[in-house]
Design a protein that fits this description.
- The protein contains four helices and seven strands; from the N terminus they run E-H-E-E-E-H-E-H-E-H-E.
- By secondary structure, it is an alpha/beta fold.
- Strands 4-3-2-1-5-6-7 form a seven-stranded mixed sheet, with helices on both faces.
- Strand 6, helix 4 and strand 7 form a beta-alpha-beta unit.
- Helix 3 packs parallel to helix 4.
- It binds pyrazine-2-carboxylic acid (VGL) and zinc ion.
- The site of pyrazine-2-carboxylic acid has 10 residues, from helix 3.
Length: 199
């Protein structure tokens, strides 16, 4: 499969805590790994940018129930839950965006994070612009939170957005949340596609 020259891949929060066995497990969250790997490998083979976003919370993060937030502790810095799912092979050329690292601010969208290791706190938008990206393909977890927020911000910032439907999975706190999230993205102009990867 070949992708357009100004495309980039964004892999949202494919981390242990969002996969079965993790503290905020997305049902079947790990089932997307082969689809994500296919896109990662295809983009890397074409020398197109591959960007991983990562929830990166301190122990006292505002989104945690202990602080009055909605979630159990998850993706705590230096825990195994914060690590990427071990089944995914990440090319050395990949970029990494961390988000939610300030205790008092939550960040669902990758566009609210910053490039790992960047001295001048580059944002995802800064990075994409510097790479002359105009179109993003989005896969990852969770459809109804961080995937939705990241894809919606991309649309608002003027990127063409393609969401791979079988490359995302949702939490569904209320049944149908993931479906509604995808419908909302389509309404805002995202293209939804199915991968050609067979399970
Ligand atoms: C997420 C809930 C809390 C996500 C992150 O990655 O979708 N969801 N923090
Ligand atoms: Zn979080």
């Amino acid at each position: 499969m070949s992708f357009p020259p100004h495309a980039a891949l964004i892999v949202v929060d494919l981390q242990n805590d969002f996969c079965p066995g993790g503290s905020l497990a997305v049902p079947d969250g790990d089932q997307i790994v082969p689809v994500v790997q296919h896109y990662v490998d295809s983009f890397a083979a074409q020398e197109l940018p591959v960007i991983f976003t990562r929830d990166f919370h301190p122990t006292n993060h505002v989104s945690f129930a202990s602080q009055g937030g909605p979630w159990p502790p998850h993706c705590v810095q230096e825990s195994t839950g914060v690590e990427y799912h071990p089944g995914i092979q990440i090319p050395p050329s990949a970029y990494h965006i961390i988000k939610g690292f300030q205790s008092d601010i939550d960040a669902y969208s990758g566009f609210e994070g910053q490039l790992r290791g960047s001295k001048d706190s580059l944002t995802l938008d800064n990075l994409l612009r510097s790479l002359q990206v105009s179109e993003v393909y989005v896969v990852g977890l969770a459809t109804d939170y961080c995937v939705h927020a990241t894809a919606l911000d991309a649309l608002k910032l003027g990127y063409r957005v393609v969401v791979v439907e079988d490359g995302v999975r949702g939490v569904n706190v209320n049944s149908g949340d993931s479906l509604r999230a995808l419908q909302d993205l389509r309404r805002h102009g995202a293209q939804l596609i199915a991968s050609t990867v067979r399970p």
